Structure prediction request, 783 residues.
Amino acid sequence: MQGPWTIHVQSTEDNTSRQYIVSGTNGNANGTNYDGVHPALSASPDVFVNVAPDTLWTIDIQANQGAGFQSSDTEISFPVKTGNKYHFDIKSNDRGTSTNDPVLDDLILRCSMPVTAAGSPVGYPDEFLVYGTVSTYNDACFNPCYNGWLVIETQAALNQALLNPAIKQVVQLLYPERIGLVNPNPPDPGPFTPIMINLQDSSAQVARMGTLYSKLVSEIPASNDAKKKFAKDGSTPVSNNSMTELRFEKNIVTNPAGSRMLYQYDNISIAKALNQLPCWEVASSPAPFLAVRFSDYDRSPSELAGGPYTGTGPKFPLGAIVTDQKGNYILRFTQSVVDLLVEAFDNTAAGEDYHVQWRPDIIASVNNTNPSTQVLYESAPYYNIPNLFHLNLCIPDSQIPAKGIICTDGNLIGSLGDVFIGGNQNTSTDISTMISGVSALDRNGDNNHLRPDGRITVHSSLAGFSVDCACWAGMIDVRGCMNNPNVAYYSIRYSKDGNSWQYVNETYLHPKYQNEGLPNYNGDLVGPFTHTINNGGSIPNVPLYQNIQLVLTNSSLGWEFSQIDRYMQLHTNIYQGSAPGTVYFIVECYDASLNFIPGFSDMIALYIDNNPLGFSLNDVSFVADGVNIVEAECNLYRMSEAYLNAPLNVTFQANDKWGFMDSYNLSFSKCNTPGFTPIVNYPVSPASANPAILSGSNPFNSDGNGCPGYHGTGEMNRFGDYNPHQISFIPPSMPNGKWLTATESYTVLSVYLTANKRETNGYNTGITGTYQASGSVAVERLP
Prediction:
């Protein structure tokens, strides 16, 4: 849907619980949010979705047949005018009922809009409704939907046309640059710019290249009851008091003013030639669930001068549609007064009537799904369309994006961020066996290793970093391949003990290209949607997510292709619980009827630790006695000469209880004295001096050694706890065993502590931090 519409419950077949959901109106220019569930009863009030004219939004009809609400099968009718309104119907069948009840009448919604909108220029309504059916046809043929013109839309069709001498002669006349050109848009593959050859004129299409009736033969008086005649080129009709007799001679392409002849060819010969080609009468088939964009087209200078269509004129977006299951569509768009005036005057050539030219010329285009910005197909223009316009579109088969699943191979859990998860997909439904069996959760491949307890080792250059034995933290992008066209929904469960399971219920959004221009737009809702599933029994109130990788259904079209392999963003702090540890996650897939699909599940373990390191520099100080060592302001200590060798006490910690410490380092410096290295006094316990207490790492904490972990300073504490550690520094014997030399009266002593932790979210360096702390004291000689 586009722009404002009024929704009315036209009829409902029985007492089945039904509803419809409006999505995409939040944040619209009018500042009102109509999103949400609306009742679908015969007495339900109408809903006027009063959004801005360019707002794209959706209606999803749902029915609850006892297993929760499910989306219904829907089709649209074409709009009709009743009184001062246009309206069309959205007809629906409850999911799964079409085989025994093929008539789509379970619920019918009627959508209506006024015929004339406010703000229109005098006599010209600015609201347009374009509707019809989108079909596909064979590439080697010509567009069968474009009446009155020979429209060539593919290189294969052009090659076919050039086999006929009469058509080739006209192509050489109008498009000489296209002869022998294999790729019309080097180095890009497309889209193919249509070739347009006028076969006849019609009142619905003002001639751009000429007219069938081009030579005035005579003017004879008309009887009083003569009917009014209109010029075939769309210009002002001749008087009722006379008749202009026009006789066909040849189709002459002139500039609009007719001042000079530019091209001349025999259109009858072209029409006869078409009958001899095998692809003139071509069968077409509907294109269901296809996203089509529409643009306003302004003719290029050469076209305004009377030349053939070039496709190089300016294009302005009008909106987008998605066809229903029969290929039908409705497009509503609005032209502002400025738009219409520009159309009337700037897009009107000499000799043309601006009363006709104010109407927009439109073209249709189809984009690829990968990448979504690539235009596969762009139609020829449809000129001067009326406010209510029936337009059937025919598109070459090869220009329709491939339908089916985005990927055809790969694990359901294929990567976490940039870290590929190798090994075999865990498809067993026996969760207890997977957890108890080490091999089932041991995912070793792609030069990365996800261990059964969830610790991750990354050695793949594709990740952009390398780390051994890290935990997981932060927000993790879960990516994978739902390589089954029956997968309509998926759920994710998690557990810390493997017995008690809960469902992931995080909001997950993904953008749709038609909504990307909306203010403050963050994406459309992928899930969760609450349903009753069948997974070894009926389970109510399960949060499910849509499979947006599937491009077979209406609901999946329009999703931005970028990052479409990502189907969840896990905020790991939700699942950590009271303490870090292993958390099991299982992804399970369901069909459109909400039945579990055996063989389409995957399970991994993640060791989640969002806790910070035990890290602090608690104390950097001297013991002051008030006589020989006096503590002044701002960590300044004044010392007598005999006490200038007093120990500097330092209390610090850099540890991780769960073993994900990477390294730490405690360092010392004296102001303006490079190379000053104090002596370290270690605590009485442990008795032996241990220089490693100043810094630490564990080179054996690697995947090859089984990830024993490393706890940092906690390993230095003989009591097995993680209390801060105490050491002291004393000045070295050289030069004089004191903090100040004979020539110094003042100095600053500084201590620095740094540490790093092994953790990742799949994107960082695998090492977080650096944690940093510092402390300083000043030493001054007492007078």
Remarks:
- Helices lie at 155-161, 165-174, 267-276, 301-304, 337-345, 354-357, 431-436, 573-576.
- The chain is about 5% helix and 40% strand.
- The first helix runs from residue 155 to 161.
- The first strand starts at residue 5 and ends at 12.
